[in-house]
Amino acid sequence: MAALFAPPPLPLIMAAPNGARRTKSDHPCLPMTISETVAAAKACFHAGAGALHAHVRDPSGAHVLDAGLYRELLSEMRVAVPQMQVQITTEAVGKYTPEQQRELVYNVQPALVSVAVREMVPDGGENQAKAFYEWAFSHECAVQHIVYSADDLDRFFNLAAAGTLTGDSHQLLFVLGRYAAGQESAPEDLVPFLEKLAERGGGQVLDWAVCAFGHRETDCLVEAVRRGGKTRIGFENGLWNRSGERAKDNADRVRDLVSALTEHSLMPA
Questions:
Q1: Which element (helix H / strand E) includes 193?
Q2: Is 160 inside a domain boundary?
Q3: Beta strand 56-57 with 63-64: parallel, antiparallel or unpaired?
């Protein structure tokens, strides 16, 4: 029953193979088409990822919130790798409004979606956002709330306390390095998020993950798992393995993380 819905557990590793901005000029193996994204997701699944964080692109290669393209991707994923969860994104990239973001989710009706708190709930938009979160809850759509800073996380807790968010079981994504110099993150960037989580997280079931920009992506994600979190990895955030060498492809990034987690005895059997 919808009244009993709680988001399913996040996988330990979610693959984010393309994102909204990078192109093949950044890496020739960055997927741009649906077929390339499905192939990358399948390879990441076999490397150890349990879910796909999916972006779709238009024919020019631009990130779009296109319900038809997302439905096509979801259909292809059900055939190619049905064991893999698929999370769509509502990322605004500076051009999509909260209304357009919500409309995408209403039209696709995905099982999983990521939503940036600062994009979906601007000041004054709480009532519209509340209706969206109630809809997602009633349709058993798991929303992962993206926060870019401890202030964003504080806003998340304020929205939860005000009843804008539905339920008391939530998924979170802490983004490290997005607004840092050169978009380079470090493991210590996780500390402000964890301090805010300890301060305000009591009384709720919070399933959190981390993504990290730059060359130290793997180090940051190992620290996240060590501290009780999950991970999102791939060319959306970083192109480099922990050796400093550029990864061959997205599956190579997953293998690098699996190897690091295994070395630290953090990888489940």
A1: helix 191-200
A2: yes
A3: antiparallel
Tell me whether residue 176 is exposed, middle or buried, using C-beta atoms within 10 angstroms of its C-beta: 0 to 12, 13 to 18, 19 or more: buried
Q: What is the DSSP string of 80-138?
A: H-TTSEEEEE---TTT--HHHHHHHHHHH--SEEEEEHHHHS-TT-HHHHHHHHHHHHH
* CATH number of the domain enclosing 98: 3.20.20.70
Q: What is the distance, to the nearest Å, from the Cα of residue 134 to the centroid of all Cα atoms in its chain?
A: 21
Compute the distance between CA of residue 261 and CA of residue 89 in angstroms, rounded to an integer.
Answer: 27
pLDDT of residue 153: 98
205-219 pLDDT, tens digit each: 999 999 999 999 999
Question: What's the pLDDT score for residue 35?
Answer: 98
Residue with tokens 């999509």: 96
The total number of structural domains in the chain stands at 1
Q: What are phi and psi of 179, to 5 degrees?
A: -115, 20
The reply to whether 170 falls in a domain is yes
Measured CA to CA, the distance from residue 220 to residue 164 in angstroms comes to: 31
37 in any annotated domain: yes
Residue 210: in which H helix or E strand, if any? strand 205-212
Q: How far is CA 87 from the centre of its chain?
A: 8
Query: What letter would DSSP give residue 61?
Result: S
**Does residue 3 sit within a domain?**
no
Can you give the residue range of the structural domain that contains 66?
A: 10-263
Extract the residue ranges of the chain whose pLDDT is less than 70: 1-3
Q: What is the model's pLDDT at position 1?
A: 36
